[in-house]
Amino acid sequence: MDFKKEVAGIISSLVDMEVEKVMELMEVPPHANMGDYAFPCFQLAKVMRKAPNMIAAELAAKVQTHAIIEKAEAAGGYLNFFLNKNVFIGDTIKRVLEQGEKYGYNSMGEGKTITIDFSSPNVAKPFHIGHMSSTIIGGSMEKIFRHLGFKVERINHLGDYGTQFGKLISAYKRWVDHEALEKEPINELLRIYVKFHEEAENNPELENEARAYFKQLEDGDKEAIALWERFRALSIKEFEQTYKKLHIEFDSYAGESFYTDKMGEIIDMLEDKKLLVESNGARIVDLSEFNLPPCLVIKSDGTTIYVTRDLAAALYRKRTYDFHKNIYVVGTTQSLHFSQLFHVLKLMGFEWAKDCVHIGFGLVKFPDRKLSTRKGDVVLLEEVLDEAVQRTMALIEQKNPDLKDKEDAAKKVGIGAVIYTFLKNNRDRDIVFSWEDTINFDGDSGPYVQYTYVRGKSILRRAGQLPETADYSVLTSDDEFNLIKLLGAFGDSVKEAAERYEPFVVTRHITEIAKAYNKFYINHPILNAEESIKNARLHLTQAVCNVIKTGLKLICIETPEYM
């Protein structure tokens, strides 16, 4: 039963307002003694020509006895509802246990497709920790949308085009170590790329050579294309090792190069619409009517830039996937670029431009430079994930050396801790990464939530087989009811995360469930309680484990069985 919708239906029957609108306005009071749901009456004041507190009092008096409602009270301008605890507790636990990993599923997205463009590292360059935000936010949003019934197309818009490939071809022909290239391709490609720039400072002629090689690539030279394809394939192969650790997959690796033969149509469209304006030899789209600087489409030398490819990509995605939403998970520093992109699409007459969304995020910072690698300022994500696993293993060896499946636990907890760090706050906030906060078993951390799951599973193993039935009416404490309310609200948090494009809403919710369960565990015996109470609390424990596992999966974190 959807208790929120049921309460909204009661309110809708009393006022001239659709159920969906009532649900949008409903709130959860900040304190349990204020009720379980609250409806603000302020919007009714103008229509009913009464003060909100008077409206709330009149509505409270009209609420009839209902199976799911214990009582309704007016509090200022709010109409507060108190649920029938027995009905709510029983229904919620049963639904969680019956639905398993499908709990919180919503069919709102059925028949709709969402494209998500995320991660998008540059070919032949290191996958550094700066790529983590896009990768994990995008990967989590994909899972959240799927949980709401949407079909999702995962797109990795690789940076695989541009003059840097002319430089790489030049560097490859001069300095490549073929054995190193096979063993550690990204490191070797980075080495020769850096060497090219060092050598070019003393030999400017190298830049001309690089431009010539890139021209050969653009003109379809077989050798240049073969080398470019090799650089790309080696890069993707190495990227996928990192994606596997993060439980991230893609449906398409169509990068910038994929759209090189599709830009001509975009230029023709812009010209037909008379949108291209000459400016100092370059061609731009004037966006002054939107208070935006001009959008450069063709440079003065006649070449296109990435915005031209982005325009082609957006049109291709609409034609190919007929998206409901076209989402770009790219840092907030690119906000202007996407604002220009979307406005140009709008000027081109594409009504679906309004369905294009930029999901921005803050920067990754460090309190010190201990994470720096031998490559200077580049902090490789692979090295961070490996160190997280090593640090976690060291803690396990220290605190629980006889733990079953130590390697599995170290991997899931270590990598999960890093992921959690990137998803525990609003995505617009900068992330200050420190090992002390990341590998932390107390408070707002991945290991804390995972440990709560492991604690629950340990209790269930010690209890033996889960009782087939239980009398939930014995769950009468405030700790139990508050915990079950959080379980009941899980689906709402998933929906809110999708609507706000904020995975941290799910992260925060399962963290609150973990805190509430640990409070319940400390204050109330489970295995030593009398039989009827024990059985009900075991069912509650199983329900908590189910929801935590589902919630962590939605944010790309695995759950170990032992810690």
Q: Structural class, from secondary structure content?
A: alpha/beta
Rg calc = 28 Å
The largest sheet is: 4 strands, parallel
Principal-axes geometry comes out as flat
If strands are numbered along the chain, what order do they take across the biggest sheet?
5-4-9-10
Distance between the termini: 35 Å
Strand content: 5-15%
Number of helices: 22
Number of strands: 12
Poorly predicted spans = 370-376
Helical coverage, percent range: 40-55%
How would you summarize this macromolecular structure in one to three sentences?
The protein is an alpha/beta fold and 563 residues long. The chain has helices at 3-14, 19-25, 45-48, 52-62, 85-99, 132-147, 164-175, 178-183, 185-202, 205-218, 222-246, 263-272, 306-321, 335-347, 381-399, 406-423, 435-438, 446-463, 478-488, 490-500, 504-523, 531-554; strands at 37-40, 69-75, 78-83, 113-117, 151-155, 276-279, 282-285, 295-298, 325-329, 356-359, 364-365, 431-432.
